[in-house]
Amino acid sequence: MSNDAQPTEVQPLFVTTRWSVVLAAKDQSSPDSAAALEILCAAYWYPLYVYARRQGHSPHDAQDLTQEFIARLLEKNYLKAANREKGHFRTFLRMAMKRFLANEWDRSQAQKRGGGMAPVSWDSTLAEERYQNDRAPTLPPDQIYERQWAMTLLEQTMSRLRAEYTTAGKIAEFEQLKSVLTAERGSIPYGDIAKELGTSEGAARVSVHRLRKRFRELFRAAVTDTVGRGEDVDDELRYVVGLLS
To answer: How many domains does the chain have?
Structure first.
């Protein structure tokens, strides 16, 4: 990636984690409230679905429970209790889901699930396949929820990085190089990469360095947007990396 194509600063990125979006969603009088709610729900449905599955619910019930929880989140304005001063939004959402599953779900009202609403649509078959293929399905519900949230953060970072390379006209380079993002520095085959890119090994090293550097910048920005006031970003970054390892 050329120097003039490289962003000079990290712009606000991850609307699914930014507290500004949570605040917009809380304010139902705001014209941005509905869009913010939709964004939040779309980002968190899979971690919530996995949480319900790990609580012992069948795929069908887990899907319905997640839909019902999101419907109530919208209808009952649960978000009014979310407070950045009290910690992470993902923790607030997990605790709300836990209370919902424990206290508020009446199986006898199954026909009323979601109140006829479908606030978030997803491929339930694909969701269950993803759940079954997860390498850590035996983790406790709280831990697997946290892990899936971290995976969402990672996926969003990759999407933003891909978008930047696409805008710069370098999507082919991104596709060639993306596998090195998780590689140990000493194991990167620069010679092979140079052949694939049709360039010198020195140029390949520069391209890999820029990709990995930009990925770290974007991922740190994403994590920074999730922390509460006064929290240590580096501590949170180590925590998220630990969830993914």
So the answer is: 1
